[in-house]
Amino acid sequence: MKSNKGITLIVLVITIIVLLVLAGVAIASLSGNNGITQKAQEAKTKSDESLVNEETTISGYETKIETHTNGGTGSATNTNGNTGSETTYWQSEEFNLTLTSNTISVSFIGHSESQDWTIIRQGNIIYDEETEQINAEIKEDGKLYLYWDFDPENAEETSVFTQVN
Fold first, then answer.
1. Percent above pLDDT 90 for the chain
2. What is the Cα–Cα distance from 147 to 126, expressed in whole angstroms?
3. Which of 49, 112, 124, 131 is the most exposed place for a label (fewest CB within 10 A)?
4. 3-class DSSP state for residue 16?
5. Beta carbons of 157 and 145 less than 8 angstroms apart
6. pLDDT(6) > 90
7. Residue among 79, 69, 125 nearest 99 (CA)
């Protein structure tokens, strides 16, 4: 009796067919409309578009910041953004306001009580030191606008002051 130790022709043909099917599936997944290469190209395009949009947005914000910190009227600032020891006095219909390089003091006209804020002043923009939000600005019309809710864009409670000599 002979022992069969080799591979039969049928097993060899089946193995080759299986390998061809696997190769076809691999090639199809790499190419075509839904292939990995096409999806990678689409992801790169979207990433490039997002980068351009982000750069445009950042540039717009930089322009707005530059306009707010350097625009308008008022005294020149020194290197740390403060106006030195200059004290200015402002008045609205209801309030008196005293502005120095690092504080705002607001009081009702005819009352001795006042509200004081420690501030950071950068040009004509005045930030509340504690919350780091804008709470006042001197605009191009020469008036000081005090935002009671710290939001110049949507300020519902704003007091407008004119400078008193």
1. 8
2. 10
3. 112
4. helix
5. no
6. no
7. 125
